[in-house]
């Protein structure tokens, strides 16, 4: 369940960061929709992620090496359904190129490996070769 919460946070972070200004001088909190300024709590996200597994803890401890940037946005709704956003960031740096799609890769890979482990199919593990076909002329098949 932890990874599902992290994945939800990541997807929320992608939607927020995708709207961020691309001007390197613009603060991280400027988006295309109204957002409060992020509370840069340096301990919230590392504590959340590190509580999951030693691998996650290692990634956070070596955040500079892995160029980790995380933006977590919690959405609460009032009695009328109006959203209220509470955001916190870890190593968010507007002067460093950021590709929001990259935020999805690690949690999805972790979820896939977890599911693979749960399936317990003989001969199927993390080392099983992957084959991806192509359905369009612009696509190339992948065999790994």
Word description of this protein:
By secondary structure, this protein is an alpha+beta fold. The protein has one domain. Helices cover 38% and strands 14% of the residues. The chain is built from 5 helices and 4 strands; from the N terminus they run ααααββαββ. It has helices at residues 2-18, 44-50, 54-61, 63-66, 102-119; strands spanning 70-77, 83-90, 131-132, 142-143. The chain has a two-stranded antiparallel ribbon. The protein has a two-stranded antiparallel ribbon with strand order 3-4. Helix 1 (2-18) packs antiparallel against helix 5. The relative contact order is 0.17.
What would the principal axes of the Cα set say about the shape? extended
Helix content: 25-40%
Let me know the number of strands: 4
Distance N to C terminus = 29 Å
Secondary structure layout plus pairing:
Elements: H1 2-18, H2 44-50, H3 54-61, H4 63-66, E1 70-77, E2 83-90, H5 102-119, E3 131-132, E4 142-143
Antiparallel strand pairs: 1-2, 3-4
Helix pairs in contact: 1-5
Features:
144 residues, alpha+beta, two-stranded antiparallel sheet, two-stranded antiparallel ribbon, 38% helix, extended
In short:
The protein is α+β, with helices and mostly antiparallel strands. It is built from 5 helices and 4 strands; from the N terminus they run H-H-H-H-E-E-H-E-E. Residues 11-36 have low confidence and may be disordered.
């Amino acid at each position: 369940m932890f990874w599902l919460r992290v994945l939800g946070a990541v997807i929320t972070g992608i939607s927020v960061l995708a709207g961020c200004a691309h001007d390197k001088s613009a603060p991280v909190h400027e988006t295309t929709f109204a957002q409060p300024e992020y509370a840069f709590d340096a301990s919230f996200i590392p504590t959340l992620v590190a509580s999951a597994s030693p691998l996650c803890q290692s990634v956070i401890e070596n955040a500079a090496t892995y160029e980790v940037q995380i933006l977590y946005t919690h959405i609460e709704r009032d009695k009328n359904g109006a959203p209220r956003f509470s955001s916190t960031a870890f190593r968010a740096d507007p002067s460093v190129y950021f590709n929001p799609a990259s935020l999805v890769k690690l949690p999805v890979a972790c979820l896939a490996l977890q599911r693979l482990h749960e399936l317990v199919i003989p001969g199927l593990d993390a080392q099983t070769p992957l084959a991806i076909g192509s359905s369009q002329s612009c696509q190339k098949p992948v065999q790994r």
